[in-house]
Every structure is written in structure tokens, then in C-alpha cells.
Write a structure and sequence with these properties.
339 residues, six-stranded parallel beta sheet, Rossmann fold, alpha/beta, 434 Repressor (Amino-terminal Domain), DNA-binding, homodimer
Chain lengths: 339, 339
DNA sequence: CTGCGCTACGTTACCGCGAACATCGGGGTC
DNA sequence: GACCCCGATGTTCGCGGTAACGTAGCGCAG
């Protein structure tokens, strides 16, 4: 019977109930060391009977081992990080490790707080989005002695390991593809970027290539907050009213891009004849639209998987490649006219 | 200088560096008890200098207090739970408590595993989606002695506290609204439901009201996996080809509903004249569509907030209302014709 | 000067578990 | 039969903190 005294259950209770030492109970519950089948059964029965749940806090302290992996990401609300999480989960599923998520809202000071909090639980590894962190955060990570994988972005120097894509290159490639199709008068829409370094780098890569070809972005607009789809609509409408000469719109993410696309379709504007569109991310969600937006896959799930694999590998003292740059491919869809 | 010996830092290192006892360091770092400003400064300086991060494992063991709240949800990938998380975060932000997320993929056995894992860290509270759990899971929760808030659904008896809406009622209300508008030949599309109890309850509430009015669902279809938007498209197309007499389609969630809506619009079908549509959830994302889908808000953020408030309240030994049923409202949008 | 109370700090005893080592008993080897 | 070995189990100790309590030093009233 799940006893109900105020005193919490411990190994000792199970050991007394089953007539063996605490150590043996510990061994049974962790499947470690030699225990005869007979006693194993007795112990398991007693534990089940009592409703005993081991205390990992004590266990972690004694063994100096914590099966937690801290995952620190900016947001859960924009589809991209949940997909990274999925990748991480898939890999950690097969190990003893468990992910623990912390959210920073793109705020460096919050990242610092969350990181401090996480590190104080002495996790077996840290997976953290981005290469840009406050000095204090970097110092913590460096001196923690814990494996650290920085994900999403590889335009920079990691503290330890990194897995991601080059956003600069992603922006550049998209620019090349657009130019190759003959578009020349280009507008840009995206989030307010001071804190979204990856969006910024894409933008930089994008404009650099344009510049090399003697082209400048003719109009731009930035948003923050709200439903991205709706913002994409509004911004696109405003931009085209303001700059009707544009023949291409580049969006910093798929959701606002989709908003723009829907606006254009609703208003009978010829896509990609009159105006071409491209965005970034490759969110699966949009596959339900009748017109497929040109975009570029961010390899989110693979990134999660590889990062988790690196942590798991370190755990097992295996050598793993620890600077991985994935190569995203452009999906032309229906909004980036081919020659 | 952040020392780099292999030996990890402890309170002792900080105490030696600052010339006070470990206890005083502990007090400083936790802002507890009397410490003079002078020594506080010295200690903080030393801690910063060394890059010391407290070990919560040891702290938790000694104090029998863990500032973690376990949040157990079925999925991160469908917008609804991230929004619940947002609500939880907003409230816990102002407390010492920290959410830790576990994902069950709608699998009871995985829920059990995740719960066991979580409870073994002795969190200060558990927020868990749904009222349906395995017997073992219920037993664990009951005997844990930890505050438990079951969220999303209130059609049933909670273990401890609960916050949510009545999905049965939500389905029923939508059925009434649809009938009131004169629709009569109704099709239903949703996920395969054996494990999504809330979708099931909505469906039950829905069909019950129809039955009372002598109406039966004329066609139905279920999907699993894949992009919901795309599935909504495909299923809608198939269903209308199969059952062209239908004048209303009820979807178990907004994403497939939106897929259906887009299909109808693309094919020039008059919405809501020829076919009306309604779904469930009120996902903000869809506000960018040119035609607004009729839906019903699931009060996700409030649910998160209230659940977190209950846990925080228990922590502070306050009395809080602990059986809360929120009342979702129908948004008619443009797809549910008014009289 | 004594004694009281207060503040600022130190001491001690755990918290629940696991690593490392000790022990015990029985079967095989020669 | 002496010896060894090995699988199964127990003992000891300490992980890094914190609660609870103890105490030194000071100011101040009488």
C-alpha cells in the first residue's frame, strides 16, 4: 500500500520491506552489478508495493553524475525550435540522457540567468542556440568543464562544439538564385534584428551578394510581435503600395513570407511573374498552401540530432566530429521563377 | 581567474578565497540570514572571480527543497502546448520556481516514464495535461505528496487541482451554433483519437447535440502525422468528392480546418454559403488568412497561467481556487454564416 | 563594570544515495 | 582437503550543501 505518512520514502524503506541492504536495492533499481533473480524480484515487488520513486538528487550527489542535458533556446513559439527539440529527443531517447529546456526570449540577460540556473544542476551537457553570448555566459560555459554544443549557426568560433548552417551563406545563396532568375528590384522584410543574430547574418550575406552585383535593396521593413502571418500580409501590402516597382520580396522567415504570398494571391498579383518571393526555414506547415513558397531548409531536425549525438558521444567517451556545418538547399517552389 | 583544475569548485573554495566560513558564503549566495554588507561584497567578489556556480543538487538534498515544476505535455509541435508554456512561464517568472518540460507524444507508457523521471527529482509541483492517466501514473502522483494540477480538460475528476475547459461542452456549443445557422448535413474530420481524449470529448459533445436534434454526422475521416494544413486539404477534397451533399465541415483542430478552408477557396467553393466550416483552438497564426475560420478559443495561455498560479500559491501556503473551468467563446469568423 | 540583547558569523549533524571495497559462501581444480 | 575464484551481498564513507543551533563581539542601560 502506498504508505501515506508524511515521511518520504527512501531506499531504507524498500530495503527493510524486502529484507536486503540498501545497496542491493540501489543495485536492483539501477540494473547494475550482480543481483540474483530471486532478490531482484523481491526488491522490485517491494518497491512497487510501496510506490517508491528513487531520489535522483541524492543519487546525483553521490555519483557526481546527472543525466540531464540543458537545452537553451530563444523561443518555443515559432516552430523552429520545437523541431530542433524533436531531433534532440529522437537521439536522447536511446540514451540515459534527458533534455531540460530553458527559454531565453532572445534576451541576453535572460540567457545568462537561465544558463546559471541550468549549470547549477550540473548537467551532462549543454546545447545552446547561437554563437553570441554575453561574456559572463561564455565564461560560465568555458569554466563549467561540461560539453557545450552551440547550434543553428556556424558563422563564428564556438566555445566547444557547434552544429548548424552558415546563415551568411544561406542569405548569399538565395541572393544569387534570385539574381540568376533576373529579378533586380528587391525588397526585404524581417524581424527587428538586433538580437536575432542569425536573421542578421542572413541579411548581411544577402546584401553582400547583391552589392557585388551592383544592386541594392530598394525597400525594407521590420516588425516585432504579433501573428507573423498577419504581419506578413500587412507589411507586404504597405511595401508594394510604397514601392510598386519592386519585382522581388525576400522575407526573413517563412511565416511572414506566407502572409505576403497570401496577400499577393488574394489580390490577383502574378507570382512569380510580376513579383517573386522567397523566405527562409522550410516549415512543414506551409506545405498545405496551394502555391509553394521558395525557401531554404534550415536543417533544424538534423541539427538537433547531431547536437544530441555529440553530447551522447562525449558521455560515452567516443570521439565525434564536433564542428559540423550542414548545407541547406534552396527549394524553388512556385514563387521563384526559373529561367 | 576562473581556475581550471579538474576539481570542481565548491563553497569551500569560495569560503577560502574570501576568508569566511562556508555557511556565510551560502548565506550570501542565497540572500538569506544576516550578513554584513562588507563581507557580502567580499564573498560576491570572490565567487565572481572564481566563476563559482552553486550546486543545486547538494542544496536541494540538504534543504529538501527543489524549485522545479514538472510540466508534462503530449507534444511541442502543434502550437497549443507552447502557448500553455508561455502562460506558465509568465507566472513563474516572478517566483523562484522553474518549469521543466517533459513530452509524452500522447503515449500513456511514455507519460508514465516521463513522470517517474520527473518525480525522481522531487519537484515542487506537477502540471500535467489531461485527466486520463495510467493507474500507475495516478498512484505515483497521489502518493508523491506534491501539488498536482491537471490542465486543459475538466470533464472528469482530478487527482488534486485542475484548470481547463469542458471539451464536451465546447463540442456541444459548436454543434448548437451550427444547427442554429441552419446547416444540416455535417461532415467531421480530425485526428485518430484513441489517445487524444480531449478531441474525443469534443467529438462526443458535438454528436450528442446533433443526435438530440435528430441529426447524424454523414461522413467522417481521421488522419495521423504529416503537415496538418496539407492533410486538411487532402481530406477535405476527398470528403467532398465522396459526399458532395455536405453543407458543413467540422474539424477537430484549426490547422486542418485552415487546410480545408484554403482548399475550398482555391476551388471557388462558396464559404460559408455552400459549405460552412468550423474548427477548434483559436490559433493566432491563422489571423493572417483572408477568410477567418470559425473556431473556439481553448484559453491556452490562461490555463497555463492559472495552473502556475496554483502551484506557486501552494508553495506560499496560500489558499487558491483549485478547480477552475474556463468558458471558451465561439469566434464566428467568416465561415459560419449568421442568420 | 555587569549583564542583556542583538548582529554577524561559525559548528555540527545530517540529507539519501552510490563508489569502492570488504565479506561470505559454495563449487571447481589439483 | 586445501586452495582459489567468483558471484552475490553488505559496510563505510563522503558527495556539497543547508537547518538549526551555538557563540563572539559590540553597544548600551543601569
Amino acid at each position: 500500500m502506498p504508505h501515506d505518512n508524511r515521511r518520504p520514502l527512501t531506499l531504507r524503506d524498500v530495503s527493510e520491506a524486502s529484507g536486503v541492504s540498501e545497496m542491493t536495492v540501489s543495485r536492483v533499481l539501477r540494473n547494475r552489478g550482480d543481483v540474483s533473480d530471486a532478490t531482484r524480484e523481491r526488491v522490485l515487488a517491494a518497491a512497487r508495493e510501496l510506490g517508491y520513486v528513487p531520489n535522483k538528487i541524492a543519487g546525483a550527489l553521490a555519483s557526481n553524475q546527472v543525466n540531464l542535458v540543458a537545452v537553451i533556446i530563444p523561443s518555443l513559439s515559432n516552430m523552429v525550435f520545437p523541431e530542433v527539440m524533436t531531433g534532440i529527443n529522437e537521439v536522447l531517447e536511446d540514451t540515459e540522457l534527458q533534455p531540460v529546456v530553458g527559454v531565453t526570449d532572445y534576451l541576453p540577460e535572460k540567457e545568462e540567468r537561465v544558463l546559471y540556473e541550468m549549470l547549477s544542476w550540473r548537467p551532462s551537457g549543454v546545447i545552446i542556440a547561437g554563437l553570441e553570448h554575453s561574456d559572463a555566459a561564455k565564461a560560465m560555459l568555458e569554466s563549467s568543464g561540461i560539453p557545450v554544443v552551440e547550434i543553428m549557426d556556424t558563422d563564428g568560433k564556438p566555445i566547444d562544439a557547434m552544429v548548424g548552417i552558415s546563415h551568411r551563406r544561406a542569405g548569399a545563396e538565395m541572393a544569387r538564385a534570385i539574381l540568376k532568375q533576373g529579378y533586380q528590384r528587391i525588397g526585404f522584410m524581417g524581424t527587428k534584428m538586433p538580437l536575432d543574430h542569425r536573421a542578421r547574418k542572413r541579411f548581411e550575406g544577402f546584401t553582400e551578394v547583391l552589392a557585388k552585383n551592383g544592386i541594392e535593396i530598394e525597400d525594407r521593413d521590420f516588425y516585432s510581435g504579433g501573428s507573423a502571418l498577419a504581419k506578413g500580409r500587412e507589411m507586404t501590402q504597405r511595401m508594394l503600395e510604397r514601392s510598386p516597382e519592386l519585382d522581388f520580396l525576400y522575407y526573413s522567415n517563412d511565416m511572414i513570407g506566407a502572409g505576403g504570398l497570401l496577400y499577393l494571391l488574394d489580390n490577383g498579383i502574378d507570382v512569380p511573374g510580376q513579383v517573386g518571393l522567397a523566405a527562409f526555414n522550410g516549415v512543414e506547415l506551409l506545405q498545405g498552401l496551394s502555391t509553394q513558397l521558395a525557401t531554404m531548409d534550415a536543417c533544424r531536425r538534423e541539427i538537433g540530432q547531431m547536437a544530441a549525438r555529440i553530447i551522447a558521444g562525449r558521455q560515452a567517451r567516443e570521439e565525434t566530429e564536433d564542428h559540423v556545418t550542414l548545407m541547406p538547399k534552396i527549394t524553388y517552389g512556385d514563387t521563384l521563377r526559373r529561367r
